[in-house]
Amino acid sequence: MNVRLLPSNCHDPTLLQSLTTFLIDGWLAIDGGSLGFGLSPSRQIGVHEVIVTHSHSDHCASLPIFIAEVFPFLNAPVTIHGTKPVVRSLRENLFNGSIWPDFTSIPLLNGSGPSLQFLEFKPGCAFQLRNLRITPVETNHVVPTVGLAIEDDHSGVVFTSDTYCTEAIWHLANSLVRLDAIFAEASYPNREAKLAEASKHLTPSLLETELKKMDGRGTVYAVHIKPQFREEVVRELSALTTRRVAVAEIDHDYFW
Ligand SMILES: [Zn+2]
Ligand SMILES: [Zn+2]
Questions:
Q1: Which domains does the chain have, with CATH numbers?
Q2: pLDDT by residue, tens only, the chain of 256 residues
Q3: How far is the CA of 187 from the centre of ligand 2 (A)?
Q4: With 0-12 CB in 10 A as exposed, 13-18 as middle and 19+ as buried, what is 154?
Q5: What ligand has the least distance to the C-alpha of 145?
Q6: Are 30 and 224 in contact (CB under 8 A)?
Q7: Ligand that lies nearest to the alpha carbon of residue 54, given by its number in the listed order
Q8: What CA–CA distance (Å, rounded) separates 244 from 217?
Q9: Which residues lie across from 30 on neighbouring strands?
Q10: Ligand nearest to the CA of residue 55, numbered in listed order
Q11: Cα–ligand 1 centroid distance for 222 (angstroms)
Q12: What burial class does residue 109 get, using C-beta atoms within 10 Å of its C-beta: 0-12 exposed, 13-18 middle, 19+ buried?
């Protein structure tokens, strides 16, 4: 499996992550925060499926731009997968005819049917996209949010998405036959624990406690580090003692 965290910050694209999109094997995106900004238009054409973990803007902001970029080249609809509240929010607040056209009612130029379709999934219910098995579970965030396990025949990778202290994603990680990597959020430095709790994000210290719920498999990569706090969070992550946590490289191809 190939995983790439797309860049989102124009000033320092390989260091600062303000938005979230992971590109999987070139055709699947997890979240649409930077999909339409951080991937070349020619490679956006290869993306046919997007899983949106929750409705926050840093995870869906570039979806309108992405759809507009790929629309002239589509011969089948782009599919956005999400839970019921996420799909409802994207329909009502993004593709609503005001912020952006409702592409579910715009026909394909090179085929029949709509340009965009939404498909709902339920937390706890695994589903298959091509060769990938996707298992979503609820995390603990301020809006309905899922973390994911993605598995193919050779590898397994877990993405926590945004979360505060939680359980299901760690149980899911422990249950995987293969677990190569965990992309876990570490948004704020330890001194901002109150802000982390209010916004339901993790600090390095909280992440360390969370990781004790897991067996020792897989490399842990920290993501979603708030740019204004990056140096401090990276320093605190490197000082963790119970489990090594690497900082995910942005715009880097990981292979498992
Ligand atoms: Zn969020
Ligand atoms: Zn976020």
A1: 1-82+84-120 (3.60.15.10), 123-251 (3.60.15.10)
A2: 999 999 999 999 999 999 999 999 999 999 999 999 999 999 999 999 999 999 999 999 999 999 999 999 999 999 999 999 999 999 999 999 999 999 999 999 998 899 999 999 999 999 999 999 999 999 999 999 999 999 999 999 999 999 999 999 999 999 999 999 999 999 999 999 999 999 999 999 999 999 999 999 999 999 999 999 999 999 999 999 999 999 999 999 999 9
A3: 9
A4: exposed
A5: 1
A6: no
A7: 1
A8: 11
A9: 22, 51
A10: 1
A11: 15
A12: exposed
Please give all residues whose CB falls under 5 A of ion ligand 2, grouped by chain where several chains appear.
58, 162
Least distant ligand from the CA of 223: 2
Q: Name which of 102, 99, 95, 43 is nearest 69 in CA terms.
A: 43
Q: Measured between alpha carbons, how far is residue 58 from residues 47, 180, 221, 224 in Å?
A: 19, 26, 19, 10
Model confidence pTM above 0.85: yes
Q: Give the number of other Cβ atoms within 10 Å of residue 46's Cβ.
A: 14
Helix extents (H) in the chain:
35-38, 41-44, 63-70, 84-93, 168-175, 193-199, 204-211, 230-238
| Alpha-carbon distances of 41 from 21, 67, 126, 157, rounded to whole Å | 15, 11, 31, 26
